[in-house]
Amino acid sequence: MNAHEIDYEIFGEEMQYVELELDPQEAVIAEAGNFMMMDNGIKMDTIFGDGSKQNEGFLGKVLGAGKRLLTGESLFMTIFSNQVQGKKKISFASPYPGKVIPLNLTEFGGKFICQKDAFLCAAKGVSIGVEFSKRLGRGFFGGEGFIMQKLEGDGMAFVHSGGTTAKKILGPGEKLKVDTGCIIGFTKEVDYDIEFIGGIKNSLFGGEGLFYATLTGPGTVYIQSLPFSRLAGRILAAAPQGGGKDKGEGSILGGLGNMVQGDNRF
Fold first, then answer.
1. What is the rounded CA–CA span in Å between residue 108 and residue 178?
2. Which among 148, 144, 126, 146 has a CA at the least distance from the CA of 136?
3. Lowest mean pLDDT among 73-87, 103-117, 128-142, 185-199
4. Which domains does the chain have, with CATH numbers?
5. Which tens digits make up the pLDDT trace of 17-63?
6. Which of 3, 54, 91, 154 could covalently link to 125 via disulfide, CB atoms 3.0 to 4.6 Å apart?
7. What is the pTM of this model?
């Protein structure tokens, strides 16, 4: 194996975290902000790119890391390595309510394609790159699904989802239609495209957007019930205007309470 072989355990129900066990000199890579806790003896370093190809040269590392800017991620990643004798543990947490999904890339033919913000952490040696759309329609209308990440290698990688996770195994030619934001990821055999919903009423009043993704098998697809963009949209929509405190939400007297609270004029 090129990637480090690590053991893991997932804890929790709705706000999960994954605990990785590192043997001496084993390491794991992660996006900044996902770290939770670690044993003494594990060293953290910031690296350029993902550290999967040590012999590709400076220019190769610059090009590989530069592509990450297109996904909204940093040029740098963090690597945590066990520098002492004996096994040490380190944990990474999901950034919002949902599930942590372990992926053995060997079982998926060495490649898995996921949403740009789904990656949590992986064994050192796994390559985190950019998967560009080759179809014009997907590029213009794909929204969150236009630029995706690809995880390549023969080690363990971990992604996270929002809400509840659904795993769908598609047969040859079997098609699944999904909201673009609800896709966590899929195997490399799955054909991914964007389809127009159609219909004047659907377009103007449907409230579900103009396009959805079509995933055609064979392959495995992971779907999330609550994309972070949808969660953030609901929070912003429910936030009180002007930064005031909204008391009594959901009650009949809630609106009256806001009037009384208003400018302290009652």
1. 21
2. 146
3. 128-142
4. 7-238 (3.60.160.10)
5. 999 999 999 999 998 788 999 999 999 998 876 666 555 555 555 55
6. 3
7. 0.77
Take residue 41 and report the two structure tokens written for it: 């003896």
Report the distance separating Cα 71 and Cα 12, nearest Å: 29
Single-letter code of the amino acid located at 230: R
Contact between 3 and 123 (Cβ < 8 Å) = yes
The first and second tokens of residue 25, run together, are 């000199």
Structure tokens at 249: 């939400």
**DSSP structural state of residue 15:** B
| Residue 142, amino acid | G
Cα–Cα distances in angstroms (integers) from residue 96 to residues 3, 118, 164, 168, 219, in the given order: 28, 11, 12, 23, 27
DSSP secondary structure code for residue 50 in this structure: -
Q: Rounded CA gap, 141 and 145, in Å?
A: 9
